[in-house]
Amino acid sequence: MMSKTKLSRRGLLKGSAAAGVALATPTIFSSNVWAAGYTNEPKGSTVTLGFNVPQTGAYADEGADELRAYELAVEHINGEGDGGMLNTFSSKALQGNGVNGKKVTFVTGDTQTKSDAARASAKRMIEKDGAVMITGGSSSGVAIAVQGLCQDAGVIFMAGLTHSNDTTGKDKRANGFRHFFNTEMSGAALGPVLKNNFGTERTAYHLTADYTWGWSQEGSIKKYTEQLGWQTAAAVRTPLGAGDFSQYITPVLNSGADVLVLNHYGRDMVNSLTQAVQFGLRDKQVNGKDFAIVVPLYSRLMAQGAGENVKGIFGSTNWHWSLQDEGSKAFVKSFGQKYGFPPSQAAHTTYCQALIYADAAQRAGTFRPSGVGAALEGFDFDGLGNGPTTYRADDHQCFKDVLVVKGKENPASKFDVLEVVEVTPRAQVEYPASMLGGELGPYNDGA
Amino acid sequence: MKQLFSLERKDVILLVCFTAAVFAGPILMKPLGAGYPDLLQKFAIFGIFALGFNILFGLTGYLSFGHAAFLGVGSYTAVWTFKLLSMNPVPAIIFATVIGGLFSAVIGFISLRRTGIYFSILTLAFAQMSYNLAYSVLTPITNGETGLQLNQADPRVLDIAFGRDYGAVLPSSDLFGIDMTGWPGFYFCATMLIICFFIALRIFRSPFGMMLRAIKSNQNRMMYTGFNTRPYALAAFVISGMYAGLAGGLMAVTDPLAGAERMQWTASGEVVLMTILGGAGTLLGPVIGAGAIKYFENIFSAYNDGILQEAFSFLPEGLQHVFVSVSSLFVGEGWHLTLGALFMLIVIFLPGGLMEGIRRIQVLISNRFGSGGGGADAKSNPAPAE
Amino acid sequence: MDAFFLQILNGLDKGGAYALIALGLTIIFGTLGVVNFAHGALFMMGAFCAVTVKALLGLESVREDPTQMTAWGTPVEIREPYVETWFGDFGTFLLDFSVPVSILVALPIMLFIGIAMERGLIRYFYKRPHAEQILVTFGLAIVLQEIVKSIFGANPIPQPAPDVARGMIDFGVSIGFDAGNVVYPAWRLIYFLFSLAVIGAVFAFLQFTTFGMVVRAGMADRETVGLLGIDIDRRFTIVFGIAAVVAGLAGAMYTPILSPDYHMGMDFLVLSFVVVVVGGMGSLGGAVAAGFLLGVLQSFASMNEVKAILPGIDQIIIYLIAVVILLVRPRGLMGRKGVMEH
Predict the structure, then answer these.
(1) pLDDT band for position B371 (50/70/90)?
(2) What is the pLDDT of residues B109-133, one digit of tens each?
(3) Hey, which of A81, A249, C42, C172 would disulfide with C247, CB 3.0 to 4.6 Å?
(4) How many structural domains comprise chain C?
(5) Closest CA–CA distance from residue A405 to any residue of chain C (Å)
(6) Is residue A140 one of the residues assigned to a domain?
(7) Which subunits count as partners of chain B given 3+ CB pairs below 8 Å?
(8) What is the per-residue pLDDT for B40?
(9) Chain B within 8 Å of C310 (Cβ-Cβ)?
């Protein structure tokens, strides 16, 4: 360890070098963190961002993709590479020379998809490495936990993959912003597509992961399908990580329901979907109608784990690499050339969040959370892949088009798992901020 | 019975050295990259947790696989105390310790009806039930996956009564005006650690401690002599449950959030690993083991390719690439691999844990310099526990 | 009634997996006295034998087609599995049957892994305290799963059953239910029968061979058997290998039901210990009985009718049963006195 310290002092050339030094020799002593104008105000020629992603556990692959996207974003912000979506981004504040004249460096950490580990990791970034912004993650529990921490510490939090309403609803915080969509928008986007494909006389059976996100997802799908005139036969809670779902699937067979809604994510989704198909649900006929399975939140990376079983199954997603707008094309090209495969929605979300944060800081001319926040609130932009987009001031939730996708029947490659059925326009998924409750509170600059 | 606070000279030295080392933590740990408040708080908190666990496991040999449940209960209790009564950490940790103790008394009373692996599985079963329920059905009390958090609208009866108003921002715990996040939080935890260490030392040296060791060496013989061991084992169980509750309370003090995953079996397993890694049955071992595991978790996971490239930048391009890709298997997303390998190496080569390594070095030094101190020291360390 | 019957089938199916894992674990306990925390990892390794076989069978020749471009501007790759190029239809058949084929591969590999583990590591821990056995095997489990993760990634990998076994079998008709009421996936029935066959084979081996007799004698009294001049150590090596094979086969055959990922061993670890302890330490029959019992009860606890009365019961049922059984029967269902009670 000691020898490493000496070595890293020698070559302070690369972008990530500063991060290495900060790790080995904690010059930024936390006690004077609070004495600065705001938490971790960058004094030198660099500014440090904290990328906090799952590197171990069930979402490690998603986390790895997030990290790839972050590295790409930092390259682009610092003016390296082909610039990616910076070229299509409607805001032209970033010049490719870092942010506010400072070169962007980053530190990384492992959330383990556990709130405690994620907070410990974020705290290290704030207390030791001097990060002015924390971003990343792959679950709502973690996102809400880290968001609360960032509010207390006085840094900006750009949530990663978090789909629960609570992140920008009940548990929203002024210092936190979310680019990803939520269960409410999934329901609103899926409703009309389900109606067009399956009609209005359907009976749905829900299997729901037994924790906050699952309940939230179940609630919104129920709400929008019951508006269409669908019945809900039952909504059954399944333990997280159940593995074998057969005991929950067999009751569906003779329940009279003709739609199965799997409010599961990650491994639970892969397993429950695989097993539902195994039990013949996809090919079944009930009441003279073809049985249908719906997975409200799709992730292409995870869907690969279910293989052939996703074929023809509807769901919603934040972004997909086959989109043909200029921003998406530029991003896929840039990412694919660097890594050899297309980016996931997790990668897209985190790339956008790093870029949007950098742009806001540049426009604000400061990294002070209240300043950056003011630049983000009500910010309208385009060119990042989901059409015209707004960061709403009232709840710091991002509003943009939502994709309804379907498992592809004849995939051309192993990445070609989903096809976009419909791009639901933003107006259709908007809801009043007051609907989800919660209190933003004031910004905390930490000074 | 001797006076409660009388210690042998050797123990006084140990306690003084320990106190000095703990308070010098920020300086000692700085060159290792661990000199920031959060990690040092974690060292102290998990040190307490492992110290308590060691009183049960190291002395009596009862291997509990459910101690994380008491830690979790302590955390929930502390956060609820913050919400309902006051942001002052003192009532929070008192309640956390008491409730942790009560909860462990109930579970201990049932589990201690069995011994060996049957006991382990009973404790594991109770902890897993607590975790699963806290994550799902008990969400109104625990706030489930998200974890129990503070709210601006919390009643905080005592704070209101004493006229403390936190305004529109979320409060953080403070000891009569001293903010418990950051360095003051560490010194608070460190003080608790030293008190806990002192109590553990007293227990180790007391007739009660002797009794617990006797349970481990041969429970049957104790029973045949007409001695009922269960009250002693239960006392040890409750004491370690209170340590766990206190540790959970301190986690909430330094970071007011309580999540269900603190109670998962992996968390229970972690404290077992900390204790064995450091050296079960030794006084210092568990604290060292706790520090080692938390250090790996927080520092090794933080290395990424960029940092590695920098570290190996003195090598020629091709060689640098090889070194970076090999070492990146062990850090960053591969830090678990290092941890697993470390467990294996320690237990293969140092069966008594890290403490045995320290002892061997002591012996080596004393042999080389011919002083007799090392031998006496080695005797005072009990053999590693089963 | 048919719903009830289906839940029994679900339970037996799950129970088959539990019983297989617990069987190997309890053999190791009973004969070697070792607490093997790497047993879940062996289950996972078996599953990844299947993944590897499929990957090897699916090795593709890659041609670049310069006329077509991917979205990120590189030529489209045209892939064709070698086995299909070389063997035509038989190659396609092999690919389709990769899971059953992998059984043949997993058997020697798992035997080798088991023997290597015992010779290289476990045998040094026979006389060491249980706590140290736990630490070293847990470390080994982490190392094994991290290696798998670094090769295969963290996401689950789909592992379809052969086409013929992908359908449903109208199982109920043959035992008197109306047609279409009790239909069950073919592969799950196969898995259940497979688990019975493996359990039967293990029992037969221990019951009817001289080798098995010595092992059983060794389980009862290791020292005496050693005094009789029998090299019990070598036999124990084989026993460990067999336990690894049983766990590995359970894992390989389970892959069409549960898409394997590197962490699946840890998920089964706690459960398998509960099964073994409920069955009674050192009792092979107990482990099997407990596996099926817990599987079936878990299925019943998940029924809506039960959950309506006791919400969340399916979350804790396994542990609740463990507590109740251990309090009523101190050594589990069929445990012997003195095994692992210290």
Answers:
(1) low
(2) 999 998 888 898 899 999 999 999 9
(3) C42
(4) 1
(5) 19
(6) yes
(7) A, C
(8) 93
(9) no
Cβ neighbour number for residue B56 with a 10 Å cutoff: 28
Contacts of C162 (CB under 8 A, 6+ apart): C96, C97, C99, C100
End-to-end CA distance of chain B: 29
Cα angle B294, B298, B299 (rounded to 5 degrees) comes to: 110
CATH of the domain at A100: 3.40.50.2300
Interface predicted TM-score of the whole assembly (ipTM), two decimals: 0.89
Task: Write out chain A residues lying below 8 Å of B335, CB-based.
Answer: 55-56, 110
Out of A317, A351, A384, pick the residue that ends a domain.
Answer: A317
Subunit contact B384:C326, Cβ cutoff 8 A: no
* One domain for residues A141 and A223: no
Residue C210 is part of which domain span?
2-328
pLDDT above 90 for B236? yes
Contacts of A5 in chain B (CB under 8 A): 31
Please tell me whether residues A64 and A122 are part of one structural domain: yes
Whole-angstrom distance, CA of residue B225 vs CA of residue B256: 49
Which residue is closest to B266 within chain A, CA to CA?
Answer: A114
- Nearest Cα of chain A lies from the Cα of B35 at a distance, in angstroms, of 7
Is residue A171 domain-shared with residue A193, that is, in the same domain? no
pLDDT band at B168 (very low <50, low <70, confident <90, very high): low
Both ends of chain A: CA-CA distance in Å? 33
Cβ(A292)–Cβ(A259) below 8 Å: yes
Domain for residue A435, yes or no? no
Kindly state whether residues A139 and A215 are assigned to the same domain. Answer: no
What domain range includes position A237?
184-317
A123/B38 CB distance under 8 A: yes
Q: Is C138 on the interface with B (CB under 8 A)?
A: yes
Mind listing the domains of chain B with CATH numbers? 9-282 (1.10.3470)
Res. B376: pLDDT tops 50: no
Least confident of A51-55, B380-384, C26-30: B380-384
Q: Are A307 and A373 found together in one domain?
A: no
Residue of B nearest to C144 (CA): B337
Q: Do B39 and A120 touch (CB under 8 A)?
A: yes
For residue range B209-228, what is the model confidence (pLDDT) as tens digits?
A: 988 888 888 777 777 777 78
The reply to whether A242 and A219 lie within a common domain is yes
Q: Do B145 and A123 touch (CB under 8 A)?
A: no
Q: Does residue C340 fall inside a structural domain? A: no
CB–CB contact C143 B125 (8 Å): no
Contacts of B144 in chain A (CB under 8 A): 211-212
> In this predicted model, what pLDDT tens digit does every residue of A40-52 receive, in sequence order?
999 899 999 999 9
Per the structure block, which two tokens stand in for B372? 């007799």
Determine, yes or no, domain membership for C112.
yes
Same domain, yes or no: A145 and A49: yes
CB contact under 8 A, A211 and B32: no
- For the entire predicted model, the pTM comes to 0.88
Q: Give DSSP secondary structure letters for B285-338.
A: HHHHHHHHHHHHHHHGGG--HHHHHHHTTTS-HHHHHHHHHHHTTTSGGGHHHH
The stretch B216-243 carries a mean pLDDT of 85
CA dihedral A252, A257, A261, A262 (to 10 degrees): 0
Model pLDDT, residue B4: 53
Q: Across A9-83, where does the E strand assignment appear?
A: 46-53
What is the band of A141 on the pLDDT scale with cuts at 50, 70, 90? confident
Question: What single-letter DSSP state applies at residue C309?
Answer: H
Confidence of residue B356 (pLDDT cuts 50, 70, 90): confident
Q: Which site among C25, C29, C126, C132 would you substitute to test the B interface, given the most B Cβ atoms closer than 10 Å to its Cβ? A: C132
Q: Say if residue A157 is in the same domain as residue A26.
A: yes
Q: Which of A270, A300, A317 is the last residue of a domain?
A: A317
* Cβ <8 Å between C323 and B110: yes
**Domain-located, residue A207:** yes
In a domain, A442, yes or no: no
pLDDT at A5 over 70: no
Q: Which residues of chain C have pLDDT under 70?
A: 1, 337-342
Residue C339 is assigned to a structural domain of this protein: no
A380-381 and A389-391 beta bridge pairing: antiparallel
